[in-house]
Amino acid sequence: MNPRDVSIPRRSLLAAALSAAIAPTRALALGADDPGPAGSGYAVEFRHPVDELIGDLLTTERGDPRMQASVPHREWYSEHVRRRFGAWGPPPRAYPPAEAAEGRSAEWRRERTIAAALRFVGYGYQHHHIPDWEPPAGWPWKETCAGGNGKGFDCSNFTGFVYNQAFGVRVSTAVERQAEQTEAEFGREGRTHRLGRIELPEGYAGKVDALRTGDLLFIRGKPGGAITHVVLWVGPIGRSASGTPLILDSHGGGVTDDEGRPIPCGVRLRPFREKSWYARCASHAHRAFGGLGEA
Hints:
The chain is an alpha+beta fold and 295 residues long. The chain is built from eight helices and eleven strands.
């Protein structure tokens, strides 16, 4: 098996080999959406071996779903957490800088971002801080397209968690603040990590050319309106039958795949079409790795 290929037929074999120690993490979502009536067939093909990119997330404590929160796992569903955090659940822990990323190129780190994020494909759209928090029946719930409480998170908690877990880079999980934040907390003792703001051209082709894999792309609710959404740009490592660039986000639905089929709400690969809301209302991007003019 070519470890760079995480297209649909091979992803479960790869996940089984790398994630036996932490099977509850949904590592089977490593590749693309499932084929068939409910799936898009979109995929990602990495230039670097996947076990090199995120082996630490699949085999060590860093990727353990029980370690996602600042609250001990045994207290996740306690009355204390219910009173203090309500429907949002416990906040994420502050992950330390990732040793696996030390000394790596910007291009490698960008691919790690997407590989780390793909582990959550299939999780629901929920107003939660951490992905694997799954409260019991009767817990307060902020209604979403998911139809009920369960694992998952919303757009900015998704992007914030991915950068936190993958690198220890901590951005705000409020989408409006994340869109304006050009410095993120990193490690301890007041260290920060710079985020480069990328202004996007008006035209579709210019936007596609300006973006890089792993960029945080911010979307307005309507042209000229307030920013309401954020996605991860997949870029040239994405694979779609139409050749349309892909993004990865936690979304409420309303997007169709290349065959016109609805893409389920939650964390999914989705197309960045020229006439789509994503393209028409794209505001700007933040880049965590590499200079503003770096390819």
